[in-house]
Amino acid sequence: MNTLFKSLALVCALASPAAAIDIQSVTSPMGRTAWLVEDHTIPFVSIDVIFAGGAALDPVDHPGAVSLMTALLTEGAGDLDAQGYAAALESLAAGISFETGRDQVTMSIKALTENRDQVIDLALLALTDAHFSAQSLERVRAQQVASLEREARDPNTIAQQVYAQLGYAGHAYSRPTDGTPDSVAALTVDTILDAHRAAFTSDLVYIGAAGDITADELGALVDHILDNLPASNTPLPEYRSYDAPAGVTVIDHPGTQSVIQFGHAGIPWDDPDFMPAFLMNEIFGGGRFGTRLMDEIREQRGLTYGIYTALASYRWGDSYVGRFSTANESAAEAIDLVRQQFEWLANGGITEDDLERIKTYLTGAYPLRFDGNESIAQILASMQFQQYGIDYVNVRNDLVRAVTLEDIQRVARRLAQPEALQFVVVGQPVGLE
Predict the structure, then answer these.
(1) Pairing state between β 307-314 and 205-211
(2) Do 196 and 272 fall within a single domain?
(3) Shared domain check, 146 and 270
(4) 3-state helix vs strand vs coil in the chain, percent to 5
(5) Domain limits for position 299
(6) Is the pTM of this model over 0.85?
(7) pLDDT tens across 274-302, in order?
(8) Any residues with CB less than 8 A from the CB of 288 and at least 6 apart, and which?
């Protein structure tokens, strides 16, 4: 899967660990909240800070502003230039990174206990006193534009962007997270400064930490990180379900293969039926061998190397989306088969045996992301951002086991809509216009 689905329902992809995870809710002296898994076995701590908004805060005429801004944060801050900042990080054996998603900007901090305070100060330097110099802007912008120009020729990127434009027209999700070559080339220092003020605020923040740090120490750090940031004043997007009309949209692109992205409206992540929908999708199109789509379209007919679907349930919108590629000559046949499989799903095709197999898989697998302080801090911040309860990790397997076949079939009737599917085909498909 590509980055389109990187942030989708992260916590639902986790099997609970063998033993209960002790998550503390920490309240800072200023009344702010963070979640902590305290572990003093090694002198190391990870802290993840999610600032809600991300690329969704980009002005309509400046897509890519927040993404470029975050790329500039460690290119010089305070009295350090870019090389000096990198050298300071290396001398502390630390990691500081910023990443922009469509719904959030994440600041990730990794530090040895003995250097923690210095690393936090270095992170704050980037967060609150980045240079945004014209020289750095020109260099980083040129790198971004070159990368975007390459992506603009990638049929997967084209399919993703056209799909979003069709179903989220006029909404923030219709614009690419990193912008376009033209939009990024036009960004100015003033636009970057505006993006910084919009993206980093003290009130729409979710913090997770794991490792060698106490609750009192974390509470003090939370206030230290957030005290110098403003309150949010940029309007957030309205919620929007995917609403492209049904049909097939062909984008001519040279090559022997067509990339096909397809989907329709999805389900919000706070919907009571989200867990049954998650299990339903894992059975139907979860991207592994053994799923219905993989079996029918790859294994039985050899029309693709891989096909998947996902619940693209974001903070301000949702879609039930999938993607695959196939030979131009088989594109029309493959699209018909996908429609047929959605009909199978809507008509109660999933069986009790299917459900039991996926329950065994999901409750028995130990998640790769849940394997250390860095991943745990990320999960804790994401759980809060997605509004899960603090005990979710420890009850998640019980929630999976509680899903019944009746639940699955009810959700399938609601969610699978073969007559509503929009297919974006990027290639030179035979028999499609």
Answers:
(1) unpaired
(2) no
(3) no
(4) 45, 20, 35
(5) 240-380+387-427
(6) yes
(7) 999 999 999 999 999 999 999 999 999 99
(8) 294
